[in-house]
From TrEMBL:
This is Biotin carboxyl carrier protein of acetyl-CoA carboxylase. This protein is a component of the acetyl coenzyme A carboxylase complex; first, biotin carboxylase catalyzes the carboxylation of the carrier protein and then the transcarboxylase transfers the carboxyl group to form malonyl-CoA. Residues 83-159 form the Lipoyl-binding domain. Residues 53-82 are annotated as: Disordered.
Length: 159
């Protein structure tokens, strides 16, 4: 008899790895009851509009195929290192304006109210409006328009 915490469906992991390879995704996660399975791979190098990208703290060797792994639920992302920063609620591409030729939603020095749109994060072809979590003044914008952002990354500061 196998232990419930270590038993998992190897075929499911292989199927998830296959989906990663077929769709060029870098990560996929499935939850079944108390079991959470996440399969991830390091993305192939891509040319981004912004040359300066933060390097990962501990870079793993690049693997062309997905490497299946069963991991415990990840710890919560660390709080934004900037005091009063608004963190990214998802991974995606951040846009500071509703359209390329439009004015940005907010600028440094702008007064914002709770619920007001600050920017948009595109994730899986869906444009997600990111609202101000509180009323205040935008004192710093920490990202560039069109920049890829990670979950928990500080986007802008509201004092």
């Amino acid at each position: 008899m196998s232990d419930k915490k270590t038993a998992f469906d190897k075929q499911l992991v292989n199927d998830l790895a296959q989906i990663l390879n077929e769709t060029d995704l870098t990560e996929i996660e499935v939850e079944q009851g108390d079991m959470r399975i996440r399969v991830s791979r390091e993305p192939a190098p891509q040319a981004f509009a912004h040359a300066a990208m933060p390097a990962p703290a501990a870079a793993a060797p690049a693997h062309p195929a997905a490497t299946p792994s069963v991991t415990p639920e990840p710890a919560a992302a660390p709080a934004a290192s900037h005091e009063n920063a608004v963190p990214a609620p998802m991974v995606g591409t951040a846009y500071l304006a509703p359209a390329p030729e439009s004015d940005p939603f907010v600028k440094v020095g702008a007064n914002v109210t709770e619920g007001e749109t600050l920017l948009i994060i595109e994730a899986m072809k869906v444009m997600n409006q990111i609202a101000a979590p509180r009323t205040g003044t935008v004192t710093d914008i920490l990202i560039e328009d069109g920049e890829p952002v990670e979950f928990g990354q500080p986007l802008l500061v509201i004092q």
